[in-house]
């Protein structure tokens, strides 16, 4: 899926995930919508924090992690969620909690919790991550 189509799917998903469209797969006109993730909690069960005050800002990043690579310990002070398009990743918190995701999986990431990601597959992992923050806020802090 190219980035233009991803933006279309995200826009349709956001527009249709309230009320009757909150769960499962749906058709709306010619578009099909499948909710990939919807939660008030991150993958480790922690409740997501409230949004900060100020001008909202959304960033959409495509991150490619080489096979066998391990990212440094870091945390995200803002809410974010990802969709793994290709590969296999393992996310580990400083406390030892682990989550493995494979291509086609969505993940609501931990917020304000030290963790790292590692590509445990044999090919580069490609993940699209959406960060919801306020303008000027850092999205990642290295330990």
UniProtKB/TrEMBL annotation:
Residues 63-131 form the Cupin type-2 domain. This is Cupin type-2 domain-containing protein. The keyword Glycoprotein does not apply. Transmembrane segments: none annotated. InterPro entries: Cupin_2, OryJ/VirC-like, RmlC-like_jellyroll, RmlC_Cupin_sf. It comes from the Bacteria. Residues 1-22 form the signal peptide. Keywords: Signal. It holds the Pfam family Cupin_2. The keyword Signal applies.
């Amino acid at each position: 899926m190219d980035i233009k189509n991803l933006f279309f799917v995200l826009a349709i998903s956001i527009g249709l995930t309230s009320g009757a469209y909150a769960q499962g797969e749906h058709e709306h006109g010619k578009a099909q919508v499948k909710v990939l993730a919807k939660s008030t909690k991150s993958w480790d069960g922690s409740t997501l924090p409230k949004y900060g005050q100020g001008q909202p800002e959304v960033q959409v990043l495509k991150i490619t992690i080489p096979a066998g690579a391990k990212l440094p310990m870091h945390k995200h002070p803002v809410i974010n969620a990802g969709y793994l398009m290709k590969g296999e990743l393992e996310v580990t918190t400083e406390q030892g909690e682990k989550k493995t995701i494979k291509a086609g999986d969505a993940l609501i990431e931990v917020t304000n919790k030290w963790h790292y990601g590692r590509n445990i597959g044999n090919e580069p992992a490609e993940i699209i991550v959406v960060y919801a923050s306020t303008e000027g806020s850092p999205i990642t802090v290295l330990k």
